[in-house]
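Data deposition worksheet. Section B asks for the primary sequence of the deposited chain exactly as it was used as input, without tags or linkers unless they were present during the calculation. Section C holds the resulting structure in token form. Section D is free text for depositor observations; keep each observation to a single sentence. Incomplete worksheets are returned to the depositor.
Section A, Depositor: J.P.
Section B:
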Amino acid sequence: MTTTEATGPAPAPRYTEDRLDALRLLGDELADATVAELFARGEAGRFNTLMRWFATAGQDLPEGLPDVARDYLEATAMPPSWVDWGEMERARLFFIDNNVHISTALSFASMPACYVVPHVAKLLSATHSLDYPSRRMAETGQFTVYLMQPGAFEAGSRFIPAAQKVRLLHAAIRHHLGRDDRWDVPALGVPICQEDMIGGQMMFSIQVLDALHRLGIHMSNEGADAYFYAWRVVGAMLGIDLAHMPADLAQARAFSDLYMARHMGPSPEGVRLTRQLVDLYEEVVPGTLFDPVVPAMIRFLVGNTAADWLDVPRSRTWDTAVRMAPAVLGVLETIEDRSPFGAWALDRLGHYTTVFELSALTRGRVMQYAIPEELKGEYGVTSAKARLDRWTPPPVTPERATGG
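Section C:
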């Protein structure tokens, strides 16, 4: 057993341009080797068919599974040995307490943040399935709900198989783009490289927390730390090297600031993906009266510069109205704090809102996270918030503080 496995991951070193440049050349050795052999042997299609029947942790692996796939699934069947289960439970309670707000942040902050990184938008646009943004959002929402269920890492849960499949999905994308010579590695790095995997981890962790803070959501330091920790565990299970992964929110701020400063900018792919996202949620929201809320919320959460790069429509009326969201949410949270019944009712409302949104996106189906064979063009527990220990974002990295 290594020291990291025995005592937990060591703190990541200071992030620099040179270090992130090196991370752009690294993929995921285990998953990449598995996918390469599956395709070399012509076994990817059979693997996908069998994987449709493998959906819960502890389930016997299907008969006829290729040996290389069986080895991979057995090697990745357990969470990291260093996981603090008390911290994971705190993360679950944090999610329950803020589920509808987290869904809002994922939809209107995290996804646009992906689109404002041109090479990430280009990669997303390179896969056929992502021409349908409902699938991308459904997969993201379903994955997060699996993670935050009680017993997510126990026999019978759906999270671990989902993580195993997502990791292979990423490796398959690297395989196809590299094989088809459709990706400029010297200019763009390895597709879904270690830097971009960590960047994605930041978009789903600290940037979600930033969005909640912007919305005026009260979060304790304990809750914010636990939520970030959960995505740290997820990152390790998706193939991020612990030696490079931020160890805490302060390091996450340093990485996130440097990553976005290095890469963010306008692109036609980012504009197209954002338009698809806006159209999707305008379809989900009944009627048309509140359609302008969607672009207004994106603009509020990502800022005007990024929103302009993504060609997010402006609306003087709705852009102004959305700025009132923190005040409205503050009133609701005051009700939640002062009334046990109010807290229960709001948590139930958040739960059912999240379920409705996910149901609308999935259309009642389970997302399978299959390996692409080609690339085409109840919760029920509440948690009190600690008002005297309110989380605030780590300060902007000093050398980035003067940026727009």
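Section D:
Residues 1-7, 341-346, 348-368, 376-388 have pLDDT under 50 and may be disordered.
Residues 15-377 form one domain.
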